[in-house]
Write a structure and sequence with these properties.
The complex is a heterodimer of chains A (about 240) and B (about 450). Chain A is of the alpha/beta class and about 240 residues long. Chain A has a single domain, classed as Glutamate synthase, alpha subunit, C-terminal domain (Pectate Lyase C-like, 3 Solenoid). Helix content of chain A is about 10%, strand content about 25%. The longest helix of chain A is centred in the C-terminal third of the chain and has 13 residues. An eight-stranded parallel sheet of chain B has the order 5-15-14-12-11-8-7-6. In chain B, strands 1-13 form a two-stranded antiparallel ribbon. In chain B, strands 2-16 form a two-stranded antiparallel ribbon. Chain B has a single domain, classed as TIM Barrel (Alpha-Beta Barrel), CATH 3.20.20. The termini of chain B are far apart. In chain B, strand 7, helix 4 and strand 8 form a beta-alpha-beta unit. By secondary structure, chain B is α/β, with parallel strands linked by helices. Chain B contains 15 helices and 16 strands. Classes of the chains: A alpha/beta (about 240), B alpha/beta (about 450). At the A-B interface, helix 2 of A face helix 4 and helix 6 of B.
């Protein structure tokens, strides 16, 4: 994207007003974008809690959503940069493949569920099951996250500047969890892990990408899998 | 000479039969439940308990080889811009790459395509083999979301949201470490060699109201082009069908307990869920009560073996059936030609169900590069096509005898039941009577 000021960029944005136009028209127009399209800036007005806003976008455009959205905003995003200037309902950025989603407010349950790539930034708090079954996505939450977050998390990084609820990382595989505040409890097979130099470097990179300033990687603890449940052992049965 | 009292014949318990005793010993020795593939093996009321009446003075038949009997079916016309059009009402059920070898998946695609029907992915994502060789491919949307991605979603011909499976309603997937090759591990974003226990619930929706929103999202992502199926295990077929319709499904798939699995606990397979026969009429009733019968299509699976089973399912009101286990047998599963190797594994052809171990002599339920060479995808695909053709001809033979110029014109009135149980489940009269248990008095 050319280095223009925000005001200039927005003045050229293609505007969709969901009070006037339908969700179908919005998503169809976004899906019709072809590589190299000049329509690189989009603005969605009056989302008013609509579900499935800007889902399945596979071109590197920016989409500013002016208000709060319902379920699955940015679902399966594959390259666009979505900013929700409000809060997001359940499943924001579910199964994201690439690109980024920034939520200026709070996010409901299952934020970033099963995400395979890209960056999800939640500037407020996220509810339960944040990063559930994540498969490569990076998630940065400025506030707190709810219980059962990173359940069965397979891969990717979850960074939490605030606190985490109960059963963090239950049945976790290879995802990395970084929490700055307190963790109410850890789930099955999730343990505190040593923060080595490569993790500090990785975390600094994530904080930079998420636009977080004034916070040091050394303030976080790292959590991950003890890998004791990877192959079934009857003597671990009471852990399940 | 001494008199000896006549001895009694040694008597084994019907309750503690040989199988039960062996399972107690196995559990005591290993400390873990038995895991296996396939569906329920116990004797269940099934299509064998139904008979067609055929034509008589009041119904005249169609000429067997001269008069046309239509077999085609359209799936997904409720909302999808591009419904699936099948030449035969028999589809190939979802089976994962991972549980099956790449050549086996390719063979399923080839066989289905030759027959003008669809095949289905599974809990492991879409492979190039099956996409490339399947004219119509249904892409499963599962709780694990292994390999789920936008590109494959858009190049699918239909999407099947999997809520449950007949072998294990309420259970998640299971793929043990022996079968996690580099390729399987990469597609599932997990380390090689670990046991993969997929979730039993979807990660981002719970309940019918959420499902409606999830289906809306899938439609928006795919521009309302693709039929959306909802697959449930045979648990509460009336309510599950009604709720799937309410959530916006184009097609409902109900899988009875004889439906197979790649790997699940034996206790789960044999004790959870309902027989296929018991699921059909409640599902059809739900569609009829909602005024959606034939508008939302119903696919039933679990123990479909021949054209008679197809015809009976259709007569009870389903639009199409799906086969999994039978399709694998057509490819070569459990073939007696490998008997010596089955014996080495402690089993015999016809009983081999340790599909999770990845040692399948037939090369189907394995990721072993040497074993999987035993499946020639072209020849195996041809066998599947032959088998599908035979099933179709058999179903047509029965339909013509009942005077029907389309398989979908078969109706419950064409059927009677041999047992009270089957009569009650199928909602057809007990043979020789006009008694439908639960509906009228003898």
């Amino acid at each position: 994207m050319p280095a223009t000021s925000k005001a200039t960029r927005e003045s050229h944005a293609r505007v969709f007003d969901l009070d006037v136009q339908s969700l179908r028209e919005l998503n169809q127009a976004l899906h019709q974008l072809t590589p190299g399209s000049n329509e690189t800036a989009w603005e969605v007005l009056n989302p008013k809690g609509n579900h499935s806003v800007a889902v399945g976008v596979d071109q590197p455009v920016s989409i500013d959503v002016r208000g709060s959205v319902g379920y699955y905003c940015g679902g399966m995003n594959s390259g666009s940069a979505i900013t929700v200037h409000g809060s997001a309902g359940p499943g924001v950025g579910e199964n994201m493949m690439a690109g980024s989603i920034t939520v200026k407010g709070d996010a409901s349950q299952y934020a970033g569920a099963t995400g395979k790539g890209g960056l999800l930034v939640i500037e407020g708090n996220a509810s339960s099951r944040c990063g559930i079954s994540m498969k490569g996505i990076d998630i940065v939450v400025h506030g707190n996250i709810g219980h059962m977050s990173a359940f069965m998390a397979q891969s990717g990084n979850l960074v939490v500047l605030g606190d985490a609820g109960d059963a963090l990382g239950d049945s976790i595989y290879e995802a990395r969890l970084f929490v700055r505040g307190k963790v109410d409890s850890l789930g099955a097979d999730c343990i505190v892990k040593e923060m080595r130099p490569e993790h500090l470097e990785l975390l600094q990179g994530l904080l930079d990408r998420a636009g977080v300033t004034g916070v040091k990687p050394s303030e976080f603890k790292r959590y991950g899998s003890a890998r004791t449940l990877y192959n079934f052992n009857i003597d671990n049965a009471d852990a399940y | 000479m001494t008199y000896r009292n006549p001895p009694t014949t040694p008597r084994k318990s019907a309750t503690f039969d040989d199988y039960t005793l062996s399972e107690i010993r196995r559990a005591a020795a290993t400390g873990i439940y038995d895991i296996r593939g396939a569906g329920a093996k116990r004797k269940l009321p099934h299509f064998d308990d139904l008979l067609f009446l055929g034509a008589s003075i009041s119904r005249y038949p169609l000429e067997g080889y001269r008069e046309r009997c239509d077999t085609s079916v359209v799936l997904g016309s409720r909302h999808a811009k591009k419904p699936i059009e099948l030449k035969i009402p028999i589809t190939i059920a979802g089976m994962s790459f991972g549980s099956l070898s790449g050549p086996a998946k390719e063979a399923l695609g080839r066989g289905a395509t030759l027959s003008g029907t669809s095949t289905t992915t599974g809990d492991g994502g879409m492979t190039e083999e099956e996409r490339g060789h399947s004219k119509q491919l249904v892409y499963q949307y599962l709780p694990s979301r292994y390999g789920m991605n936008l590109r494959d979603l858009r190049r699918a011909d239909a999407i099947e949201v999997v809520v449950g499976q007949g072998a294990k309603p309420g259970g998640g997937g299971m793929l043990l470490g022996q079968k996690i090759s580099d390729r399987v591990a990469e597609m599932r974003t997990l380390p090689k060699g670990i046991d993969q226990r997929s979730a039993s619930r979807h990660p981002d929706w719970t309940g019918p109201d959420d499902l409606e929103i999830k289906i809306l999202e899938l439609r928006e992502i795919t521009d309302w082009e693709k039929p959306i199926y909802v697959k449930v295990g045979g648990a509460r077929p009336y309510y599950d069908t009604a709720l799937a319709v309410k959530a916006g499904a184009d097609v409902v798939v109900v899988d009875g307990m004889q439906g197979g699995t790649a790997a699940t606990q034996e206790v789960f397979i044999e004790n959870v869920g309902q027989p296929t026969l018991a699921c059909i009429r409640p599902a059809v009733q739900a569609l009829q009560d909602l005024g959606m019968h034939r508008k939302v299509q119903l696919i039933v699976s679990g123990g479909i073996r021949n054209g008679a089973d197809v015809a009976k399912a259709l007569a009870l009101g389903v639009d199409a059936v799906s086969i999994g286990t039978a399709a694998l047998v057509a490819l070569g599963d459990n073939d007696p030609r490998w008997e010596a190797e089955y014996n080495e594994l402690g089993t015999t052809s016809g009983a081999y169900d340790d599909w999770h171990e990845g040692k399948d002599p037939a090369g189907i339920t394995t990721q072993d590069p040497e074993l999987m060479k035993r499946v020639d995808p072209i020849a195996a695909g041809r066998r599947l096509a032959n088998y599908l053709k035979v099933m179709t001809l058999e179903a047509q033979t029965i339909a013509r005898a009942c005077g029907k110029n389309s398989l979908h014109n078969l109706e419950p009135e064409d059927l009677v039941a041999l047992t009270i149980e089957a009569a009650a489940m199928a909602g057809v009269p007990l043979a020789g009577t006009n008694w439908i248990p639960g509906k009228n008095t003898l």
